[in-house]
Write a structure and sequence with these properties.
By secondary structure, the chain is an alpha/beta fold. It has one domain: Glutaconate Coenzyme A-transferase, CATH 3.40.1080.10. The protein contains six helices and twelve strands. Strand 9 and strand 10 form a beta hairpin. The protein is globular. The termini are far apart. It is an enzyme of class 2 (transferase). Keywords: Transferase.
Length: 246
């Protein structure tokens, strides 16, 4: 597996982590056979520009840790379409026909996780906790092959932490030091993915100067973020549009 590295920012001064575009931000970081943690829930809070740049980079053999795999032709569905993802570590994959086809054909590896377990595995990875015990999944196929233990009369299954070579996340606002603010529901798996990545690249809609964001309003400190990409006008595609007559 290739080791991700981070070069100094190409623009914006010594303290700036801002890169001119998604392609430049990925240069020297992504490589074949890496493990990537990708933020988002459905199509909410996904790093659209970074995923497209990852597709264009041509890297392959990827293991993607993500709550889901987007939809056909958008989000991580783009990388499934180009066969760049070898394995998914996910919670929900029901909106992607190509995902289903590849999995049933034996072309795609899949490691299913209960959603809360997936979130905690990422959080543990970012916190340096190698493993933890949870009652979720005990006595089911989720626990097969895993250590189990009893605490105070209740049974638990041990889950290991997840650490990624690279994290790709989406935030609403960032200062040039990488302090991030997420917008409402987009604050889903993004913080946990960011902390679990050895290198984190954040795609943001608004970039401000250092010191502009009130420290009390920072959702993720810049210590976790290595590079920033400004994408002021993401598509923000609606996953399922529901309408009704008056």
């Amino acid at each position: 597996m290739a080791q991700a590295t981070v070069a100094p920012p190409s623009a914006g001064g010594a303290k700036s982590k801002l890169y001119p575009d998604a392609k430049t931000a990925l240069d020297g970081v992504v490589a074949d056979d890496q493990t990537l943690a990708v933020g988002g829930f459905g199509l909410c809070g996904i790093p659209e520009a970074l995923i497209e740049a990852l597709r264009d980079s041509g890297v392959k053999g990827l293991t993607a840790i993500s709550n889901n795999a987007g939809v056909d032709g958008f989000g991580l569905g783009l990388l499934l379409g180009t066969r760049q993802i070898r394995k998914m570590i996910s919670s929900y994959v029901g909106e992607n026909k190509e995902f289903e086809r590849q999995f049933l054909a034996g072309e795609l590896e899949l490691e299913f996780n209960p959603q809360g377990t997936l979130a905690e595995r990422l959080r543990a990875g970012g916190a340096g906790i190698p493993a933890f015990f949870t009652a979720t999944g005990y006595g089911t196929v989720v626990a097969e092959g895993k250590e189990t233990r009893e605490f105070d009369g209740k049974h638990y299954v041990m889950e290991t932490a997840l650490v990624a070579d690279v994290a790709l996340v989406k935030a609403w606002k960032a200062d040039k030091a990488g302090n991030l603010v997420f917008h409402k529901t987009a604050r889903n798996f993004n913080p946990a993915c960011a902390m679990a990545g050895k290198v984190c690249i954040a795609e943001v809609e608004e970039v401000v100067e250092v010191g502009t964001i009130d420290p009390d309003h920072v959702h993720l400190p810049g210590i976790y973020v290595d590079r920033i990409v400004h994408n002021p006008s993401p598509e923000k595609r609606i996953e399922q549009r529901t309408v009704r007559s008056e």
